[in-house]
Amino acid sequence: MSTLDKREYPQRTKAGTIPPTTRGESNMSERYVIALDQGTTSSRAVLINAKGEMVGVAQREFPQIYPKPGWVEHNPQDILFSQVGSLTELIARNNLSADDIAAIGIDNQRETTIIWDPSTGQPIANAIVWQCRRTAPIIEELCGDPEVARTIQQKTGLLPDAYFSASKIKWLLDNVPGARARAEAGELLFGTVDTYLIWVLTGGLVHATDVTNASRTMLFNIHEGAWDPWLLDLFGVPASMMPEVRPSSGSFGETSYPGIPAGVPITGVAGDQQAALFGQCCFAAGEAKNTYGTGCFLLMHTGAEACDSKNNLVTTIAASAPGTGHLEYALEGSVFMAGATMQWLRDEMGLLVKASDSEYMARSVPDTGGVYIVPAFTGLGAPYWKPDARGTVVGLTRGTNRNHFVRAALESMAYQIADLTTAMQADSGAPLAVLNVDGGASRNDFLMQFQADLLDCEIRRPQNTETTSLGAAYLAGLGVGFWKDTDELRSLRSTDDVFTPHAI
Length: 504
Ligand code: ADP
Known about the structure:
Layout (H helix, E strand, L loop, with lengths): L31 E7 L3 E7 L5 E8 L11 E2 L1 H18 L7 E8 L5 E4 L4 E2 L3 E2 L7 H8 L2 H11 L8 H11 L3 H6 L4 E3 L1 H9 L6 E3 H4 L5 E2 L4 E2 L1 H6 L9 E3 L19 E6 H8 L8 E5 L3 E8 L10 E5 L9 E8 L3 H9 L9 H7 L8 E3 L17 E3 L7 H27 L5 E5 L6 H11 L2 E4 L5 H13 L6 H7 L4 E3 L5
Parallel strand pairs: 1-5, 5-14, 10-13, 15-21, 21-22
Antiparallel strand pairs: 1-2, 2-3, 4-8, 6-7, 6-9, 11-12, 15-16, 16-18, 17-18, 19-20, 22-23
Bound molecules: adenosine-5'-diphosphate (ADP).
C-alpha cells in the first residue's frame, strides 16, 4: 500500500530575507553558515541557520558562451562577479557582519577548468565548461589504447572522457599562445571553480581544492589521495600548476576580498553532486541519493572502499566529516534525459502546459497501455554509454492517447534509474534499502511512487530539497564546530515524504 507520509510542512520562508522570528532583536546573536552554490547557469548564496533551515537566498545568472558547435565556455570573471554579487546582496539584505557568519562553504559545478596568472589574477582564457566536447579528439589520441584506458580507470575511477578536466587543461596549454612555457616556468595556476573562488576570496593566499573536486580532474589518484605523476605526464600538465588537495571539511583560509566581511573562515568545499550526497545525510556505505533535474545524478556511498565498477559507472571520492581519517568513496551514474523529457513534451510535442501537469495526466490512466519511451535524444549515459543512440517510442496502438504518452515519459525516468541502481548494486554488492531524492522532478508524487515500486525500495524526499547548498553548509559548519557531528546533522533533517514500495 502506498504510504505517502504527509506531515505538516514547516513554515516556508520568503526567499531572500530572514523572517522576524529568526532574526528579531532577541535573536541578534544568532549565527549562520553561508553556502556559495556555484552552478552551471547561476551563482547563489544561501543563508542557513543552526537548525539547518534555509533562511535567505540571493541568485545571479551569468552568460553561457558557445563559440562553436559543441563548445561551452564561461568567462571566469562572470562566475566570480555573479558569485560575489549574490554574496554581497545576501549579506546586505540581511544586515550581516563577519561576527554573524560562522563559516562559508562552497559547492560548485564540477570539472570546469580555469587557468590563471597569480601575479595579475587574470585568467589566460575563458573557463572550459564540463559540457564542452572540444577535447574529445585529445581523449581519443591519448586514451584510445585499451591498456591506457584501463590504467586511467584504475587510478582515477573514471572512464576516460573529455568531460573531466585533464584534457581541458592540455587544450588550454597547447592553444593559448605562450601558455605552456609560462606553465612550465611555474607562472600559471590551474583550478576547478572552487579553487579559483577560494584563491580570489582569500586574496590570493590559498591555492587549494578538496578531494571531491580533485577526483573529477582525471589527474588524481583516488586510492593514494594525490596528484598522479603518470597522469600529469600523459596530459602534459606541470605539477606546479596543481592546487593543494585538502579534506572537504576543514580550513581553506579566510575571506579577504573588497566588499565582503573580512576574516570569515571558508571551511567546506565539495563538487555539487558530492555536496548533495552529504546534504542528504548519506554518510555511510549503501546510502544513496538521486537528483531528478534536467538529467539525473545517482550517487551511492561505498564507505572506505573504492568499488571498481564492472558496469560502466564511475568511482568518485565522497565528502567526509572532519576526523574520518581516511578517504571515502561513492559510485556515480548519470542519465542525460530526465526532467528534460518533460520539457520536450511541453515545448516540442505540445502535450503539456507545464511539467507538473504530468502528474494528474499520468494518474488519469491505469497504465501506459503498453507504450514505452526510451528518451535517448542525446545518446544514453550510464550504464550504456551509447552516444549515437536516439529516442524511441514503442507499443503505440489506436487507443494510445496523450495521457499514456505522458505517463510513459515519466516512467522512462524511473526505468533509467532502475538500470543505474541495478548496476550499482552489482558493483557494490550492497542492496539499496532507501533512495533519498531531490531535484525539480522529485516533486512529482506519481513518479516517486512508481520509482519506489519499480526498485522495491523506500524513497525519501526531504522537505528541504536544496540539498547541494545544505551539503556545502554542513561541511563548512562541521569544519568550525557550528555543528558537532553527523549525528547532529541527521537530527536536523526536515520531515520527509516517504514512499514505500508495493508490488506492481
Ligand atoms: P536543473 O537543476 O537540472 O536545472 P531542476 O532540479 O530545477 O533542474 O528541475 C527541473 C526539471 O524538472 C525540468 O526539466 C522540469 O521539466 C522537471 N520538473 C519540474 N517539476 C516537475 C514535475 N512536477 N514533474 C515532472 N518533472 C518536473
